[in-house]
Amino acid sequence: MQLYMIHNCARTAWITYFFCTFTLSQQFKHNRYNKHHSLLHFYSNYNRLAADSFGNSYGSEDILVLQGLDAVRKRPGMYIGDTGTYGLHHLLFEVIDNSIDEHMAGACTKINITLFPNGSIEVEDNGRGIPVDICSQTNKSALETVLTMLHSGGKFVDSDNISSPYKFSSGLHGVGLSVVNALCEFLEVTVKRNGKSYIIKLSRGNVVSDLKIDRKCKNTGTKIVFKPDYRDIFVKNHEHIDGKFCPSCASAYDADIIVKRLRELSFLNPKLQINLIDNRNDGEKVTFHSKNGLKDFLQYLMKDNVPIHKQASYIGINETIGGIQVNAAIGWAQDSYSTNILSFANNINTLEGGSHIDGFKTAVTKCVNASFKRAGYLKDKLPLYSGEHIREGIYAIVSVKLMNAEFQGQTKTKLGNAEARSAVEKAVMTELSRIFDKQSSLLNALFKKVHATKQANDAAKLTKDMIRDKHSSLIASALPTKLSDCTMNDCEKTELFIVEGESAAGNAKQARNRNFQAILPLRGKIMNIEKVSKDTRLIENVEIKNLLTAIGIQCDPNKSEITDDEVTSKQNHPRYGKIILLTDADVDGTHLRVLLLGLIFRLCPSLYTNGRVYAACPPLYRVSNAKGSKSNEYYLWDESQLPVKLTPKSSIKMSTEEELSEGKYDYGESTSRSNNKNVIIQRFKGLGEMMAHQLWSTTMNPDTRILNKITVSDAKQASDMLELLMGNDIQARKNYIFDHAETFNIGDLDM
Predict the structure, then answer these.
(1) In a domain, 496, yes or no
(2) The domain spanning residue 192 has which CATH number?
(3) Which residues constitute the domain of residue 390?
(4) DSSP structural state of residue 283
(5) DSSP bridge partners of 332
(6) d(CA 103, CA 88)
(7) Structural element, H or E, at residue 7
(8) Number of domains in the chain
(9) How far apart are CA 262 and CA 95, in angstroms?
(10) What tens digit of pLDDT does each residue of 626-681 get?
């Protein structure tokens, strides 16, 4: 029985990990910074206030000034995004980007990346090699300077300066290698330059072996070997006991993530050869080299699709306007109904788009409509097609290379240069117009697809309007009786909290702001949609029916087969702007959250696309002073942030204030006996244990709460993983869990 519980808990934990960290990106609603920075900022404020409450002073002696790379180690999230999977791979990509910049400067043709079993990585290129002569500003070698000092490097020289070593580059802030140095257990750099080989060794931001000449050599290049600081920085799932080797270090770097990035770089740099050697897997070697660049990239993306025109399935754009290189590959798929646009700036994947994508979308819409008019497809009185109609089914890669690129933050997810918009718009308008005028059959095929898309959207809108006008009163009366709706009608300002059970719902109803917050309780676990058979009528399940109806989605009750057409959805116009999953912080609550995430993914995926799905984060602990007022209570989301260490004196787990105050927990040696009597630490087992004002201030108040925004970055990968972890194939799921068991920490299970 115990083995069965552990297996099911492990499966639930894997599914949660997949949704929340592997496929779904999370963001905080109330803070523009990344998740870890937000939590660290919250905890630092908590520690300061808690010190005041427990009798400690706060004065100027408590102000710290962090020098050099100490700030990087103290707040790594500011520089690499987080200290999880993303941040770990960001270190590697910073090093690789430097080699890519050498290639863009015309000095590098090959890059080798080697993964080692101890968690270290080697990156070697045949570029010019980092300079080793003395830097006049620091009186240190240039190599040591760029490794140990923030905002140093050869990319601050104006790009239009004839002596600039880099015309285009991805690293503009001068923090790449120095941040890698700060966050690594060891870093060894070998530079081949001036007929000699130089070597320097560093650890955690400090030089441990000065730069010295290793030997003579004929070629040039740079080799960087580094091992991230798993012990102090990248600590998740890593256990270093008595200095022994941690098996999790070997699998810390995900080969699939690295392969995806290297494949992109090879397509973006067709003359570059990139080799990946995985010594963790018997030296397996993968070589990336593209002959046709973005054309190969587009064919790779569309390999499973049918183009609208086989003889003209690829449109290539290669222009330089105002010093900005614009490269794009465009195609439309007949069997695709989504928009698929990848964007890059100086080889950096700008996931959030930016000015270059704004220019691209504007150009495509203008050019297609203008070409339709010239060809006689559009009469003078007919309205133009919208950008959404034209972009349905499009596959496009847009890459720009420009001087002084302006990215948002060091992680560079959005381009801000205004001149990039005009350059891309002009280049795309010019080339697309020429192609459409020359390829009349391609234009005709595109017109048929765009016109069919518009007709389908218009018909759907007409049907929705008719139903809305004819049955508006019936729809209102058909809302679930358990739904405690809000009074506001503005969708974008309203929120629906989905909670587990009447107990949690009771507190949530008392805590909410009924003006814009609605509450929907669910009775027990909902149906696992991955195990629903084709002869099951989805609408007959009361909980699913109530959930979909509350959100604003209608199912056809007369159909039993589950197909894409079964669900008629108002996904683009739901009844609420935010769908917030509010569940207990235990395995059962996590399982319910996963079931809800899977249901939404299958039936209304655009709720993810439109950024409407969130997960609430209720606290785990309340820390208070028994002799103080409510103003002396604080909340924590992580046991590691507790001001004292709890050691239970018995095997019985207790969490009530009475049990704690009776001394059934030992508060550890870190506090005095007199202070122990005044400290109360309460562990919330479920939402039902929280008072209404506590739930409001910590979880529901938009000004103070923490929300995890759930988005899907790769729909196919998400679908495959959801089917694997939640479907009927027990053996496949079992194999997956056992194959990845070494990366899972059983301490994360709440049993």
Answers:
(1) no
(2) 3.30.565.10
(3) 294-459
(4) T
(5) 394
(6) 24
(7) helix 2-17
(8) 2
(9) 13
(10) 665 555 677 888 777 776 555 444 332 333 333 333 333 333 333 333 445 567 78
Confidence of residue 327 (pLDDT cuts 50, 70, 90): very high
User: What number is the average pLDDT over the span 2-10?
Assistant: 43
CA atoms of 244 and 118, how far apart (whole Å): 11
Residue carrying structure tokens 């441990």: 208
359 has pLDDT over 90: yes
Asked if residues 267 and 300 have their Cβ atoms less than 8 Å apart, the reply is yes
Is the pLDDT at 558 greater than 50? The verdict is: no
Beta-carbon contacts of residue 677 (< 8 Å; ≥ 6 apart): 626
In angstroms, the CA 294 to CA 296 distance is: 5
Instruction: Fill in the amino acid letter for 225.
Output: V
Cα dihedral value 616, 617, 620, 624, nearest 10: -100
Tokens of 419: 């001149």
Distance CA 268, CA 257 (A): 17
pLDDT beyond 90 at 420: yes
Beta bridge mates, 555: 567
How far is the C-alpha of 147 from the C-alpha of 178, rounded, in Å?
A: 4
Are 148 and 110 in a shared domain?
yes
d(Cα 592, Cα 595) in Å, to the nearest integer? 5
The tokens for 520 are 């929907």
Query: What residues form DSSP beta bridges with 159?
Result: none
The last residue of one of the domains, among 240, 273, 288, is 288
- In whole angstroms, what is the distance from residue 343 CA to residue 264 CA? 11
Closest CA to 551 of 529, 532, 570, 566: 570
Is the pLDDT at 6 greater than 70? The verdict is: no
Least Cα distance to 593 among 133, 89, 15, 179 occurs for 15
Query: Which residues on neighbouring strands pair with residue 307, listed in sequence order?
Result: 333
Q: What is the CA radius of gyration of the chain?
A: 29
Q: Measured between alpha carbons, how far is 293 from 401 in angstroms, rounded to an integer?
A: 15
Please indicate, yes or no, whether residues 281 and 146 belong to a single structural domain of this protein: yes
End-to-end C-alpha distance for the chain, whole angstroms: 13
What does pTM read for this prediction? 0.58
Q: Which of 31, 235, 200, 181 is nearest to 130 (CA)?
A: 200
Q: Which two tokens stand for residue 110?
A: 């090959």
